[in-house]
Amino acid sequence: METKDFKTTVLINAAPQKVFNGINNVRGWWSKNIGGSTEQLNSEFVYRDKYLIAKIRITQLSVQKIVWEVVESHNTFFGDKYEKEWDGTQMIFELVEKDGMTEVTFTHLGLVPQFECFNVCSNSWNFFITESLKNLIETGKGNDISKDENSYTTSIFVNNSPAEVYKAINNVRGWWSEEIVGKTDELQAEFFYHYKDVHLSKMVIVELVPNKKVVWFVKDNDFNFVNDKTEWKGTKIVFEISKTGDKTQLIFTHHGLVPGYECYDICKDAWSSYIQGSLKNLITTGKGEPNAKEGGLNAELIEKWGLPKK
Asked: Domains (ranges, CATH) in the chain?
């Protein structure tokens, strides 16, 4: 019977021992906000971020296989009802040498589609394993999320209903850019944004809670004005909607967009303009100020980003 647990595989250009050492350097590819030993059998370590606290025990540790068991967890991203979803699940790393390289198969055993966190967690794991861990081992630098608590956030209040706010957020062409390619209002849909050759980004919609929450995962990104063109990659963009008295509040947070990023000041100012100006105007007046269309995409761009050909 086919398993529904989350699984991803990556081929790393390194010997199994080096890959094994890299996996155990959890602070280098997942987060520096970890307490405890991450490289001794039967030891426990605690992972912390703004929404998730997880106590993890190392139950198997060899160059062929590493197994972590979640002893206790508190995930507040989806509310109290779902905070224990990770309890009792296992993270399994299986290493196989292939032609001088190492294939790593990662399985989060127990993380299944029925979980409220499945879409967000699976996209995050895919990034950490296939991108951050691979980069750490092959280049010496991973993409940990230690500074997530310093992420950029802003909010607005409007007289409109939560349903109207939710509808406007999903009308991304109405407030961000008319250059969007793809669907912007369906769960697991991908859409592509670009502003000239300055900023190109591909988003996956990982959560849609009608009239309450929208979450995008940044699958890929390219800037032409900073040294690390992929600074947004692996981050999450969250819109939270709530009723406050006779008004509706929208809290926007770009998790992972932190002051340490070279793009931070420019991106912070841009998001402030789009959320406090364009999106708010779309909600309240029916007309936003998105980036205007500037013509079709060239064949090279379509090929590079895997966009549909017209």
From this structure: 6-139 (3.30.530.20), 148-304 (3.30.530.20)
